[in-house]
Amino acid sequence: MQPQMRKSVVNPFSRRQIRRQEGRQELLNHMGRVMRLSHIIAMSMGWTSEDVLLLKLAAKWHDIGKDWRPWLFYSHVPFTTPEQWAAARDHPLHGAMMLLHCPEAYGVTQKQAVPVAIEIANHHQYHQDVDESCRIMASLMNLDDQIDVTLLAHGARIIKAVDYVVARTERRHYAESLTLDDALTAMGHTVGTEFSPEVYAVLKQMRDVASEYIARAS
Ligand SMILES: [Fe+2]
Ligand SMILES: [Fe+2]
Q: Which ligand is in closest contact with the Cα of 65?
């Protein structure tokens, strides 16, 4: 009798762990792209370096709320239930809570934590609602007279628009990747409701620069 070849045994648990680590690395790369493109958009809009710094921190960690449910976000398994989609929609608030809980872990000072958290919490907010949402959050923390809510709302609008073009041009398990021009065209359908007309105009003006940033691996 021929000796039996030993079947290679792959531990499905460790495979899942590896997939999650890869998924998290992809997320870090995504957040890095959003941070760098948000930075140059804000600079081109004449922001001060102090305001840009807050925006960069928020953009760098904008999706950190996905760490709340790594099995949902990093496994590349398609969402199939309304509960999964609802959980996905909560990630901005989870991210804001995580950052407020332990800002040092993200290289954010106590002073920066609230404004950065407000921008993170609103990075998927509708253009028309973001001012009110930022104002309510600042007022819940009794900080509405100490924080420039309008600036934070603009920051959240920049992250939202940049996040959209970056995400739509990346390979995702739930959607086809688009070219930058197609992503900008798709975005144009909801400018004024979802997206800020001002940020959209700057993104279109800076299309070539945006293309270069999006093409970078991380
Ligand atoms: Fe997000
Ligand atoms: Fe994102």
A: 1
Convert the pLDDT of each residue in 19-37 to its tens digit: 888 889 999 999 999 999 9
Helix (H) / strand (E) element for 47: namely none
Q: Are 184 and 204 in contact (CB under 8 A)?
A: yes
Ligand 1 center to residue 7 CA distance, Å?
42
> What CATH number corresponds to the domain at position 80?
1.10.3210.10
188 CA to centre of ligand 2 in angstroms: 19
This prediction has a pTM of 0.90
- Has residue 178 been placed in a domain? yes
Neighbours of 30 (CB within 10 A): 19
Q: How far is the CA of 63 from the centre of ligand 1 (A)?
A: 5
